[in-house]
Write a structure and sequence with these properties.
Low-confidence stretches: 1-10, 16-22
Number of helices: 17
Number of domains: 2
Distance between the termini: 74 Å
Order of helices and strands: HHEEHHHHHEEEHEHEHHHHHHHH
Strand content: 15-25%
Number of strands: 7
Shape: elongated
Structural class: alpha/beta
Length: 395
């Protein structure tokens, strides 16, 4: 005697399906058997809901059958096309579909994983098609990706631990569709390194610009959520005026380090191309000096050598030289390569650009945040398991 089609039996059947490598005719038979099992369960449920079997009369019933409609359930052995019974008052919904939705949740996880790992919606659909034996549209992958929205909201509102020894702040510009034209909007980002050398993208915020007000709002949000800066020894930035004004208001007591990579590019913009290599070499004598005393000596050598030839380049360096040498306050010289530039956070930005390049222009803010969160989440998981060796090394 066959077992009755219960939700428990359906669960067991799906587990069996997942554990077996279905090929050829076996796959077709498996789909047919699973389809029958689920449709039998739905028939039992509608009988229980109405109170009478099909074609039986009962004048006291509260609802009536009203045919059926097709519903797709995408699972590991392909797309099941189910005949779902319905009623006139639309009060019936089978629990078996409520449990498995339109596609099995394991498939959603696989599709979402492809998205998080950097595949575009079209590439994800193409990669999964041979495995599932069914074609999946890019719009389907996109709809599944929207399930990240709750995770993004939770990420933006989670409490933060004040555990970072070094904080980095910078922005990356992405293109959004505006009402009349494409708009270039910066994504304000915070990156931290703990005392144990664990790196993390702490937070990001899609902004209209990089003004003091924009940065101040972002920094205040981080502060209120827990980043008080009590354990922070240095803040590293690209040198933007709006950011530095905001930092002086939110984190006035923490030392600031200007990024040498950004400053070098700014100086070279004021130098003829034929002198780039020589100027860069003299700048490196400052930034790569063994100590602050040697860096100061190299700085005056740069000033004396180039002031008469490139006065604007020298002035560009003079303006921020104190903030450029702040990293010498950190005693462990092995850490200097990680904190004298914003290269650490820039590498994360390169991954964002690589992931977003196939998209070109985002349709809305939600799509931007969804993909950026996916990239940053993937990076954070990897970094958590691989702390920087410079920090774990003992003197």
């Amino acid at each position: 005697m066959l077992h009755r089609a219960t939700v428990r039996n359906v669960n067991r059947a799906l587990k069996e399906v997942n554990s077996f490598q279905w090929e050829g005719e076996f796959k077709l038979k498996a789909k047919e058997a699973l389809k029958k099992l689920m449709e039998d369960r739905m028939e039992e449920e509608i009988v229980q809901y109405i109170g009478v079997e099909s074609y039986q009369r009962d004048d006291n019933r509260s609802d009536y059958r009203n045919g059926s409609y097709t519903r797709n359930l995408l699972c590991e052995i392909g797309d099941l096309i189910l005949e779902v019974p319905r009623t006139r008052n639309k009060g019936f919904y089978p629990s078996v579909l409520d449990a498995y939705k339109r596609r099995h949740r394991n498939i959603d996880k696989v599709i979402l994983a492809c998205f998080v790992l950097g595949l575009s919606t079209r590439k994800a659909a193409k990669v999964l098609a041979p495995m599932l034996g069914e074609s999946i549209s890019a719009s389907t992958v996109s709809r599944i990706a929207k399930s990240l929205d709750k995770e993004v909201e939770r990420y933006h509102n989670r409490p933060l631990e004040d555990k970072y020894r070094f904080l980095f702040f910078d922005g990356v510009v992405l293109k959004n569709k505006g009402t009349a034209k494409v708009q270039r909007r910066p994504l304000l980002c915070a990156y931290g390194i703990t005392h144990e050398g664990v790196c993390e993208i702490i937070g990001f915020h899609s902004s209209q610009g990089e003004s003091r007000e924009a940065w101040e709002g972002f920094l205040n949000d981080l502060y209120k959520r827990g980043i008080k800066g009590a354990n922070c020894e240095l803040i590293i930035t690209d040198g933007g005026k709006g950011l530095h004004s905001a930092l002086e208001y939110v984190y006035p007591k923490i030392l600031k380090q200007r990024c040498w990579a950004h400053k070098t590019r700014n100086i070279l913009d004021k130098v003829r191309k034929k002198d780039w290599e020589l100027v860069k070499k003299t700048l490196h004598r400052i930034s790569y000096a063994k100590n602050r005393r040697e860096a100061t000596k190299a700085y005056w050598g740069f000033v004396n050598k180039w002031r008469s030839i490139y006065p604007n380049a020298v002035k560009c360096l003079e303006t921020d030289i104190e903030d450029l040498l702040t990293f010498f306050h950190i005693k462990e010289d092995r850490l200097w390569s990680k904190i004298r530039t914003t290269n650490s956070i820039e590498r994360a930005f390169r991954e964002v650009r690589r992931r977003t390049r196939p998209i070109g222009v985002f349709t809305n803010r939600e799509s931007v945040e969804r993909i950026v969160f996916a990239v940053f989440h993937h990076l954070n998981v990897n970094w958590e398991n691989h702390p920087l060796k410079e920090f774990t090394h003992k003197d």
